[in-house]
Write a structure and sequence with these properties.
4 copies of one chain form a homotetramer.
Chain A (H helix, E strand, L loop, with lengths): L2 H7 L3 E5 L16 H17 L5 H6 L7 E8 L9 E10 L3 E10 L2 E11 L13 H10 L4
Antiparallel strand pairs in A: 1-3, 2-5, 3-4, 4-5
Chain lengths: ~150, ~150, ~150, ~150
């Protein structure tokens, strides 16, 4: 399969989040501390969608594979508010031997609100030792890889 | 319109929440501190659904009507986990001159997880003075009233 | 030891919480969904103080005793803001065979902000079976019991 | 005043956070989504300490100066748990015309848990227009500047 057919097969995964009153601070926008949590929820939902319903919870407890974070960076471009759903576009941008990098772009009403980069390590839940991802996870990630 | 036709016209409002890894504590269930927040989000979503897209944020900023809480009580019946969506059934059970009471039942996979009772007061955002609800809000609530 | 000497020996446990910008909503007060979480943190801190540094985390993982909640109710008396520390007064009001009830009063600048009642069950972490509290926990609770 | 005397005069600001059960996820460590929020709380507390008790809440409402975030990046070095207080070392590393950069290092039991870099912009609360910081804020920041 060549690159163009791969790209053609890919449809962006978008996780929609209802931003509410309780997410907002006195500046009447979503509190900065909520935005990384929104992006993390979107990555969790990305796994859930691509692993047949299994997100981080089932990956850790049922599949014995954790993915703790070693890095995150976010650029905040425009405020997030309850006036529109927050559409989080998620895709993996790099797969290493025991690590994975995700990009998460948050958009509201077609405006880019934040761009984030997140790096996780595959580990055994007992002891946090790094390991290679299981084959099915590797295949899912490889099928969705796109440049950052 | 008599009571039975009213009831016939009513369809339960159900707000679905994705419970994730980040909502759970080391006991591998949703943290107790998250459950009232889930119920509040469901009430916010109830207003949004019945006011044409306006939840607490727009009620306060655009419609100049706040609804701060004066009471909440919850009974926790069964643990909430990420294995199913949390279906929050919301309905108003009482409308006073300047107050409103909501019932929120949280269910997963047809199992009752919690039952909650919440009392709010209608206020002016400037100064928190109690007031009567605006007519359109009153009509919406009256059309959805059901016993607790 | 008679009741009056018991009371004389008791000093209210007060857990102080820094309320910040991130706890507040667009009404410029702490979001209602944060208040139960503040009260829970205060109960966790109550255990930590009385069990020589062991809060819920160590109780569950090291002492094999969980205390999940079966009920909470709160009355909100006055808004909580970042202008003062939130002083949470915590005490146990009832000890059953396998249950415990706590009272938590939140005060700022000598004003009562909320009163809460919380009921927990002692359980084995594996399987959530109710059990009697360990002797040292029972003794700690009995020494601090006061009417609601 | 030369650099060495400046450095001698400076004492690191350290904000202590009680990490509890409710901050932890099923991996029995503080949830990744909580860590940026801890760092933000520490920056809020840094302002509060250096502005005579005024944190972000009072800066926005009383002093009419907001400081929304345009960037954050964090490296996670070691898990955060409830077994020790989280000591957040905070200092400003750069002051621009209308921007400020903070470093936040989180340590537990003398182990570095995370390092974070945060960039904020000084704005008018009405309209989010960038502006120069007020003189007293500028003086406080300049007196505490240290390399990253």
């Amino acid at each position: 399969m060549n690159v163009s057919s791969l790209n053609a097969a890919q449809v962006d995964f978008v996780h929609s989040i209802r931003v509410g009153w309780g997410d907002c601070d006195p500046a009447q926008i979503a509190y900065t501390g909520r935005l990384p949590a929104f992006a993390l929820e979107a990555i969790d939902a990305w796994w859930e969608h691509h692993l047949g319903g299994d997100g981080w919870f089932q990956m850790e407890l049922d599949r014995k594979t954790g993915t703790p974070f070693v890095h995150m960076s976010l650029d905040f471009r425009s405020p997030v508010t309850p006036r529109h759903r927050l559409k989080c576009h998620v895709w993996p941008t790099r797969l290493g031997n025991s690590s994975i990098e995700f990009r998460v772009d948050g958009r509201q009403n077609d405006v880019l609100c934040f761009e984030g980069r997140f790096v996780c390590v595959f580990v055994n839940p007992d002891g946090f030792q790094p390991k290679e991802p299981p084959d099915d996870m590797r295949r899912v990630v490889e099928s969705q890889l796109k440049p950052a």
